[in-house]
């Protein structure tokens, strides 16, 4: 990302709530037109960042820039922002129509234009015919769509969404995720949303900013975070992680440095019945299956290896494995953690074999 | 719900006890006022309540009540808005001071106004120079009435606004709405019924205030006598029919207040259910 | 200025609402309280002690406190029963009873006072009955004062306990019943402790209000010194003699008593809530 492409930028932002240091030297750059997720556990400071961009909170120090201009002293209403609240904050005593029209009426838009804009938005969100309803007469998904339309009505340059899916049932949530992604891509508006759900962030966002304890841990595309995590926190937070002690006892990982711990992912492990796969069996180790969990589309195999309980995924089409069976376990790679540094280590046999082949 | 359905003798004993207790303590005094007021015939009743001093006393009561409702409504809305929509230090102290007037004896309320505006106060020469008399005059009565009803409206509004949160106001402000637009379009619909309810309570208490007003009134018939003070005057002059006739006006107003209260509570609850 | 800006909320109107609040609060409450403080500071201590320890004043305090305490206790018991009946039982006329409980708030105290007095003199409907049957006088005795204070204190306990009882989850009781507790145990061990904070708060509010009550009591009391003269009346008579120093001295002690009662409530509430959250 180069300086001139960033549309929203935070420079050295600090924010305290009493003794609580909510934002610690935050530096963020968000390019124009991107859909960005602020991802982190609760209390990690992600909502604070969002609210500071909106002008709902004010940083103790540092600068907030929108489109190259410092906006610290610009009130939220003049920053060209649309905000979707976690609880939607729909005006409960106004109809859907009045809710969406509110921002336009405040700006003294002629009533005829308001009518056009509202019906255009109602069509966009697929809620035609609900104009006269009150928020309480809508389903959770409809409320979210109306909140979205209300935020978009005055044509903002940036759309901010605070946990947009938190208040919705699991099933509707999946549907809305795709919907929201399509909508935002179609409109092409720079959007930032806050979430604590990694799947949501990975599925919806172009880019993810991972926060923890008031700091930004890493910024990157979902696949970058996944394959190249910068900090131990990101390794543990993104994807499934299996902590491993004594990883140097694993075959082909003997070259141990000063690193204290390692982290495995289920997809880094392959499990075979004895003699099932000749390519890896030479370099695989023996482990004992302790548990098999049916996961619908696949099986989770729990296997004991050098005192560590590892989880691996196996297709339901593969030959059957029983609990108690001794199997071949092959570890492709793992993350080793040295203080705040993370490095990927590959199974050395892979290198040797590739040389042979 | 099995547990709560208890139709044993205990239930009916308790209900009877409650009915007897309330009949003795609440209904009997109420009915007694009406009966005594009418005991010497309807003509005496009408001439008692249309007595020139009775009308003047009623007018002063109305004046004091209107002032109290006006000031406390403005104050109640401002205080509730300020205490629930913003974070700042000293909130607790402010709300303690707001609630203070109802925990103080009405006589003491009167006393502190006498100390503030009476002859021994440093304010007295200043106000006297401007020709303003507060104690033993109408302004004192109005002040005392405002004081004893001071928290009535804010106390109704604060819980409603606390429960409502600040999201809607923040959303409106982000879209650029000003103070009065936000208040009128977003906040007011939430507190409408609570506000009316508070006004009803404030009215009821204001028109019946006796102790504090008694301290500050000069007890001048036709000048600084409110209806309750006028009733006291008649009663002490052994004009029982007159006293009870004047009382009956306040009884009717009290019943109206109770009915309004129930209606408002009902309406407010219904609206809350719709817009939950 | 910089600090102020950082604390500013996006919601407008802080300056206006805060300004109005503080201005009106100052004019109505703070300035008069300050003048009380200023006047108090000018009192001579020996005179203060002399005033408040006069036998007539001491007996005034005693009359006020004892009658208010008895009335508040009666209201605690009756208020609890009324709240229970109104929440847990269904019977014809329930709505009406619920409606008239607020009457003592709505009816002017002086009106209630003259009505109760007239009813309970030895010639009144109720007073005659009691005098002829049991030889008990009500009006112009401490019993009469207590009756008037019961009247004005009725709504406090009911209205504190009622909402808590309404919100109480039936699952508590069901759990206790399933575990084999009988009705009485369930009430005393499960329900009552939940209602206790509300009961205490209603009781102390009624108590504090009764101690300062004037309008409804002054007619029925008869105001015989050492017998039925309440403390607020003593303040009133000092005021009528323009003895502001004496009036203020008596009032200060009453304010202290009210403060103590309300503090007892605050302490009781914090003990109960600490116990509940401590166990959780």
Concise summary:
Chain A is α+β, with helices and mostly antiparallel strands and 357 residues long. Chain A has ten helices and 19 strands.
Detailed description of the structure:
The complex is a heterotrimer of chains A (357), B (276) and C (280). Chain A has two domains: 3-237, P-loop containing nucleotide triphosphate hydrolases (Rossmann fold, 3-Layer(aba) Sandwich); 243-356, OB fold (Dihydrolipoamide Acetyltransferase, E2P) (Beta Barrel), CATH 2.40.50. Helix content of chain A is 27%, strand content 33%. Chain A contains ten helices and 19 strands. A six-stranded mixed β-sheet of chain A has the order 6-7-8-3-9-10, sandwiched between helices. In chain A, strands 13-17-14-15-16 form a five-stranded antiparallel β-sheet, with no helix packed on it. In chain A, helix 2 (96-106) packs parallel to helix 4 (140-152). The longest helix of chain A has 18 residues, at 170-187. Chain A starts with 5 loop residues before the first strand and ends with a helix. Chain B has 276 residues and is mainly alpha-helical. Helix content of chain B is 78%, strand content 0%. Chain B is built from 13 helices and no strands. Chain B has helices spanning 9-37, 42-49, 52-85, 91-103, 106-117, 123-129, 138-148, 152-164, 167-174, 179-208, 211-216, 227-236, 240-274. The two termini of chain B are 25 Å apart. Chain C is globular. Mean pLDDT of chain C is 88; it is low at 1-6. Chains in contact: A-B, A-C, B-C. The interface between B and C is large, with 99 and 83 residues.
Main pleated sheet of chain A: 6 strands, mixed
Residue-averaged pLDDT of chain C, rounded? 88
CATH fold category name of the largest domain in chain A: Rossmann fold
CATH class of the largest domain in chain A: Alpha Beta
Major sheet attributes of chain C: none
What is the terminal-to-terminal distance of chain C?
A: 45 Å
Please tally the β strands of chain A and state the result.
19
Topology:
The complex is a heterotrimer of chains A (357), B (276) and C (280).
Chain A: E1 6-17, E2 20-31, E3 35-39, H1 46-54, E4 61-66, E5 69-70, E6 81-84, H2 96-106, H3 111-124, H4 140-152, E7 158-162, H5 170-187, E8 190-195, H6 198-204, E9 207-212, E10 215-220, H7 222-227, H8 232-237, E11 242-244, E12 261-264, E13 269-272, H9 278-281, E14 285-294, E15 298-305, E16 308-315, E17 326-331, E18 333-338, E19 341-346, H10 348-356
Parallel strand pairs in A: 3-8, 3-9, 6-7, 7-8
Antiparallel strand pairs in A: 1-2, 1-4, 4-5, 9-10, 11-12, 12-18, 13-17, 14-15, 14-17, 15-16, 18-19
Helix pairs in contact in A: 2-3, 2-4
Chain B: H1 9-37, H2 42-49, H3 52-85, H4 91-103, H5 106-117, H6 123-129, H7 138-148, H8 152-164, H9 167-174, H10 179-208, H11 211-216, H12 227-236, H13 240-274
Chain C: H1 2-7, H2 14-42, H3 45-52, H4 55-88, H5 94-100, H6 103-106, H7 109-120, H8 125-134, H9 142-167, H10 170-178, H11 183-212, H12 215-221, H13 231-240, H14 244-279
């Amino acid at each position: 990302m180069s300086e001139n492409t960033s549309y929203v930028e935070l420079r050295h932002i600090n924010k305290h709530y009493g003794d609580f240091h909510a934002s610690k030297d935050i530096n963020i750059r968000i390019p124009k037109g991107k859909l960005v997720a602020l991802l982190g556990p609760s209390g990690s400071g992600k909502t604070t960042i969002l609210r500071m961009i909106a002008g709902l909170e004010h940083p103790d120090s540092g600068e907030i820039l929108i489109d190259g201009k410092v906006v610290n002293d610009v009130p939220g209403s003049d920053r060209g922002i649309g905000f979707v609240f976690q609880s939607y904050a729909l005006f409960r005593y106004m109809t859907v129509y009045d809710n969406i029209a509110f921002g336009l009426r405040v700006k003294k838009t002629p009533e005829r234009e308001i009518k056009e804009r509202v019906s255009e938005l109602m069509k966009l969100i697929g809620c035609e015919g609900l104009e006269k309803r009150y928020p309480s007469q809508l389903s959770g998904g409809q409320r979210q769509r109306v909140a979205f339309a209300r935020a978009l009505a005055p044509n903002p340059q940036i759309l901010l969404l605070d946990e947009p899916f938190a208040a919705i049932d699991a099933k509707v949530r999946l549907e809305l995720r795709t919907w929201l992604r399509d909508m935002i891509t179609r409109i092409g508006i720079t959007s930032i949303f806050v979430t604590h759900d990694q799947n949501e962030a990975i599925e919806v966002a172009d880019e993810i900013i991972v926060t923890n304890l008031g700091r930004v841990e890493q910024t990157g595309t979902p696949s970058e975070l996944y394959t190249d995590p910068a900090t131990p926190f990101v390794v543990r937070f993104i994807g499934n992680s299996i902590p491993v002690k004594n990883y140097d006892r694993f075959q082909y990982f003997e070259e141990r440095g000063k690193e204290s711990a390692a982290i495995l992912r289920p997809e880094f492990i392959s499990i075979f019945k004895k003699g099932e796969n000749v390519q890896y069996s030479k370099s695989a180790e023996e482990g004992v299956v302790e548990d098999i969990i049916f996961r619908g589309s696949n099986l989770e195999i729990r296997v004991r290896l050098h005192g560590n309980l590892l989880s691996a995924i196996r297709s339901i089409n593969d030959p059957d494995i029983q609990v108690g069976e001794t199997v071949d376990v092959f570890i492709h790679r793992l993350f080793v953690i040295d203080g705040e540094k993370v490095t990927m280590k590959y199974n050395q046999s892979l290198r040797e074999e590739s040389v042979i082949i | 719900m099995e547990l709560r359905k208890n139709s044993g003798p205990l239930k009916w004993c308790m209900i009877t006890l409650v009915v007897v207790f309330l009949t003795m303590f609440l209904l009997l005094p109420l009915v007694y006022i009406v009966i005594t007021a009418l005991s010497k015939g309807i003509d005496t009743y009408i001439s008692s309540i249309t007595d020139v001093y009775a009308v003047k006393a009623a007018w002063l009561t109305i004046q004091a009540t209107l002032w109290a409702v006006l000031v406390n409504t403005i104050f109640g809305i401002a205080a509730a808005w300020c205490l629930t929509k913003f974070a700042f230090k000293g909130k607790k102290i402010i709300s303690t001071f707001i609630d203070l007037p109802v925990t103080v004896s009405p006589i003491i309320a009167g006393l502190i106004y006498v100390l503030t505006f009476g002859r021994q106060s440093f304010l007295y020469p200043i106000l006297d120079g401007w020709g303003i008399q507060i104690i033993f005059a109408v302004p004192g009565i109005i002040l005392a009435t405002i004081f004893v009803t001071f928290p009535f409206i804010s106390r109704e509004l604060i819980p409603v606004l606390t429960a409502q949160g600040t999201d809607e106001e923040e959303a409106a402000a982000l879209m650029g709405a000003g103070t009065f637009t936000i208040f009128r379009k977003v906040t007011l619909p939430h507190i409408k019924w609570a506000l009316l309810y508070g006004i009803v309570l404030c009215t009821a208490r204001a028109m019946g205030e006796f102790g504090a007003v008694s301290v500050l009134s000069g007890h001048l018939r036709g000048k600084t006598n409110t209806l309750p003070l006028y009733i006291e005057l008649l009663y002490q002059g052994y004009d029982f029919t007159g006293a009870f006739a004047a009382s009956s006006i306040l009884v009717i107003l009290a019943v109206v207040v109770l009915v309004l209260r129930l209606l408002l509570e009902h309406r407010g609850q219904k609206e809350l259910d719709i817009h939950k | 200025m910089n600090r102020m800006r950082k604390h500013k909320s996006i919601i407008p109107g802080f300056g206006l609402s805060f300004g109005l609040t503080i201005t009106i609060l100052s004019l109505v409450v703070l300035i008069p309280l300050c003048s009380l403080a200023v006047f108090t500071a000018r009192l001579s201590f020996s005179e203060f002690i002399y005033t408040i320890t006069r036998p007539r004043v001491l007996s005034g305090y005693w009359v006020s406190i004892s009658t208010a305490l008895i009335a508040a206790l009666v209201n605690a018991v009756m208020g609890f029963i009324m709240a229970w009946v109104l929440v847990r039982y269904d019977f014809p006329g329930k709505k009406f009873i619920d409606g008239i409980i607020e009457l003592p708030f709505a009816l002017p105290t002086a009106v209630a006072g003259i009505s109760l007095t007239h009813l309970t003199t030895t010639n009144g409907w109720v007073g005659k009955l009691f005098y002829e049957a049991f030889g008990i006088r009500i009006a112009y005795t401490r019993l009469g004062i207590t009756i008037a204070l019961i009247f004005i204190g009725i709504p406090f306990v009911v209205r504190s306990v009622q909402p808590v009882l309404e919100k109480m989850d039936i699952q508590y009781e069901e759990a206790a019943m399933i575990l084999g507790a009988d009705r009485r145990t369930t009430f005393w061990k499960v329900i009552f402790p939940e209602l206790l904070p509300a009961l205490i708060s209603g009781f102390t509010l009624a108590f504090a209000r009764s101690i300062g009550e004037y309008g409804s009591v002054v007619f029925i009391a008869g105001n015989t010194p050492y017998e039925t003269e309440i403390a607020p009346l003593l303040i009133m008579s000092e005021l009528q003699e323009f003895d502001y120093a004496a009036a203020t001295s008596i009032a200060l002690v009453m304010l202290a008593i009210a403060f103590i009662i309300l503090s007892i409530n605050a302490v009781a509430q914090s003990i109960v809530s600490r116990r509940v959250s401590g166990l959780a």
